[in-house]
Amino acid sequence: MERVRHLIVGAGISGLAYADRLGRSEDLLVLEADREIGGYCKTQVQDGFTWDYSGHFFHFKHPDIERDLVSRMTGQKILSIVKDSRIRWGEGWIDFPFQKNIHQLPREEFLECLVDLRFRDKAARPASFRDMLYAKFGKGIAEKFLVPYNEKLYATDLAALDVDAMGRFFPYADEDEILRNFTSPDNASYNSHFTYPEGGAIQYVHALASGVDPGRIALSEAVVSVDLKRKVATTTQREIGFEYLVSSAPFTKLLGLTGLPHDPSVYTWNKVLVFNLGFDRKGPEGIHWAYFPQRALSFYRVGFYDNIFGADRMSLYVELGYSKDAVIDDATVETMRARVLEDLARAGLVDGHRLVSWHSVVMDPAYVHVTSGSLRDVAAKKRILESRGVYSIGRYGSWTYCSIEDNVVEARALADTLLTPWRT
């Protein structure tokens, strides 16, 4: 039976970042069930349009990581973008985040939000994400944007989510900050700037993969079971013994592969149907992505690749949230593509535009539901797995909400930790 020291499950950002950190001299093997590397960071180039599987933009907090990855992108033009994100409201736009820009609303709605913010229950102790929205911002802000938008995104009852379900990525603002924004706008956020290569997000994947021996990446080979006692993984092609197994697969899948007893109802998530749409001419200028809380519209977010690239034809990604049990088959895709085109016209984004190219993908899982139960169970199960040399990392492996860069940081830190005994 073949044996490796480091068996890596998944050739997306997390798995490749771990393998890259080990170095070419290390004893490793990367297994990828798909026919190509990249996970959700794949890029589709079609009819002169460049689309990712969804909008995957890198928001770097660590300049050294950015420099390292960009330095490996030979021949790529790297775009550095100051984000312009908006919210569609009526026939116009307001700036994101909603709670800091209520002064841009029509007068009656502005006053409603302001009064509800001022007289909200400041003594409330929220027990869920939904409770937090009301307690922090009041009824007006919650019900006009924060609740409907996030219900469309997560495709679930927000009362089921943990208070801190989005962590540092939720745009918190206290009352003073909201009021100060009326006269001194400051909409800075963790993603105020982002980096994007002209070849799409796959270029970051290729940059990481450049540090891994291609012969140590096995494509179209899925893991079907993991024996924790024997420390052996069975794939669709062979058995492989390991010292360490590092997985970026969804945590629920890893639990199933190992046979570790767990309650499946603890883990819920949504699916996202993404349409990439190319039109014959430009649409709105300047905006990089926009949010749509309106329940009558099928999508919750639309992004404009053409305004990132400076292209002369409108190029969109359009995201629709579904529950984890929803069936999204070919018929659904056709029906919803027609609905999306109608809704884009209703929202004022297309007006006589001709669709000249399109692509779709289903992300399953897309956003995991971070709940008090999932937080406890992930922590407990990770301790058991790690005692057998199995580590679960990444957004889906850790069942969390994080940035793409966070996955690189986590993978590198784990590699450094596991390499220490062998290099000292």
SSE sequence, one letter per element: EHEEEHEEEHHHEHEEEEHEEEHEHEHEHH
Helix content: 25-40%
The rounded Rg comes to: 22 Å
How does the helix and strand content classify structurally?
alpha/beta
Largest sheet: 7 strands, mixed
Give the averaged pLDDT, no decimals. Answer: 94
Describe the structure.
The chain is an alpha/beta fold and 424 residues long. The protein has three domains: 2-41 and 58-70 and 201-264 and 370-423, FAD/NAD(P)-binding domain (3-Layer(bba) Sandwich), CATH 3.50.50; 97-180, protoporphyrinogen ix oxidase, domain 3, CATH 1.10.3110; 270-363, Alpha-Beta Plaits. 33% of the residues lie in helices and 23% in strands. The chain has twelve helices and 18 strands. It has helices at residues 13-22, 63-71, 107-118, 129-154, 175-180, 202-209, 251-258, 305-309, 330-346, 372-386, 394-397, 404-423, and strands at 2-9, 28-31, 43-46, 49-52, 78-82, 85-89, 92-95, 193-197, 217-218, 223-227, 232-235, 239-247, 270-279, 289-291, 301-304, 315-323, 355-363, 390-392. Strands 1, 2, 9, 10, 11, 12 and 18 form a seven-stranded mixed beta sheet that branches. The chain has a seven-stranded mixed beta sheet with strand order 7-6-14-15-16-13-17. Helix 1 links the parallel strand 1 (2-9) and strand 2. Helix 1 (13-22) runs parallel beside helix 6 (202-209), helix 1 runs parallel beside helix 12 (404-423) and helix 3 packs antiparallel against helix 4. The longest helix is centred in the middle third of the chain and has 26 residues, at 129-154. The radius of gyration is 22 Å and the shape is globular. The protein starts with a strand and ends with a helix. The relative contact order is 0.19. The model has no long low-confidence stretch (mean pLDDT 94).
